[in-house]
């Protein structure tokens, strides 16, 4: 399904490709003016991701990873080698997950996955760029220790991984999960950025920060 921006002069376009048995929202995101693109969270089903890139008629320069769970990284090494592009993210705190991708994949019956390290770890205050677009990096631990959220302030748009969902938040019962830290990440770092910021999340439909602030049962109608 295509999430092109709302008018013909919009700076970005995106194509969401649900991948892996977890139906994770792998996103092909591109700059309209340059047609340069990034693939965010290639969790598996690499042939489907490659088909989406071809459909969008864009050139992929890099891969961005929001966090290290298998459903977000299962296809990363294969896609990197196929496209010969660097991987950026997540935060170094998720290194232990990237070091055990094969083991994690085996637990869920996912074969052909590989351990890997990114070409660049991301940290709070960093930026990532694709074409003429720039995204600020926010380190948002809780779902995993190294989860990052990517925000383009000009477009009022974010990629939040599994930190926040439409009507829910990321699970914290996996190793390294911390529910209190997750809620702090959302309330202290994301919600203050503004109600009008829309987002694509790791699973299911997107939303915006205002709707979640007002209605998400995990956020208690936060006013901040």
Shape: globular
Element-by-element helix/strand order: EEEHEHHEHHEEEEEEHEEH
Give the strand tally.
13
Compute the average pLDDT. Answer: 95
Largest sheet: 6 strands, mixed
- End-to-end Cα distance, whole Å, is 33 Å
Describe the fold and architecture:
The protein is built from seven helices and 13 strands. It has 224 residues and is an alpha+beta fold. The protein has one domain: Ribonuclease Z/Hydroxyacylglutathione hydrolase-like (Metallo-beta-lactamase, Chain A, 4-Layer Sandwich), CATH 3.60.15.10. The chain starts with 11 loop residues before the first strand and ends in a 9-residue tail after the last helix.
Short note summarizing the structure:
The protein has 224 residues and is of the alpha+beta class. 24% of the residues lie in helices and 27% in strands.
Secondary structure layout plus pairing:
Elements: E1 12-19, E2 24-31, E3 36-40, H1 46-56, E4 59-64, H2 70-73, H3 76-83, E5 87-88, H4 95-98, H5 101-107, E6 127-130, E7 133-139, E8 148-152, E9 157-161, E10 164-165, E11 168-169, H6 179-190, E12 198-201, E13 207-208, H7 209-215
Parallel strand pairs: 3-4, 4-5, 9-12
Antiparallel strand pairs: 1-2, 2-3, 6-7, 7-8, 8-9, 10-11, 12-13
Structure characteristics:
224 residues, alpha+beta, six-stranded mixed sheet, five-stranded mixed sheet, 7 helices, 13 strands, globular, disordered N terminus
């Amino acid at each position: 399904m295509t999430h092109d921006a709302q008018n013909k002069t919009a700076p970005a376009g995106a194509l969401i490709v649900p991948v892996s048995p977890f139906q994770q929202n792998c996103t092909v995101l591109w700059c309209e003016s340059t047609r340069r693109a990034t693939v965010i969270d290639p969790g598996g089903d690499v042939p489907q991701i490659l088909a989406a890139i071809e459909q969008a008629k864009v050139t992929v320069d890099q891969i961005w990873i929001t966090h290290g769970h298998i459903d977000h990284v299962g296809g990363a090494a294969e896609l990197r080698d196929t496209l010969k592009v660097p991987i950026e993210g997540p935060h170094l705190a998720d290194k232990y997950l990237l070091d055990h991708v094969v083991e994690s994949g085996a637990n869920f019956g996912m074969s052909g996955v590989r351990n890997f390290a990114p070409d660049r770890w991301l940290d709070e205050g960093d930026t990532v760029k694709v074409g003429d677009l720039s995204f600020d990096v926010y380190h948002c631990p809780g779902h995993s220790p190294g989860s990052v959220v990517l925000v383009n302030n000009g477009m009022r748009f974010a990629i939040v991984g599994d930190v926040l969902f439409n009507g829910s938040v990321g699970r914290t019962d996996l190793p390294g999960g911390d529910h209190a830290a997750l809620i702090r990440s959302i309330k202290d770092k994301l919600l203050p950025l503004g109600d009008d910021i829309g987002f694509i999340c790791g699973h299911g439909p997107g939303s915006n920060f205002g709707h979640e602030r007002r209605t998400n049962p995990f956020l208690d109608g936060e006013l901040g």
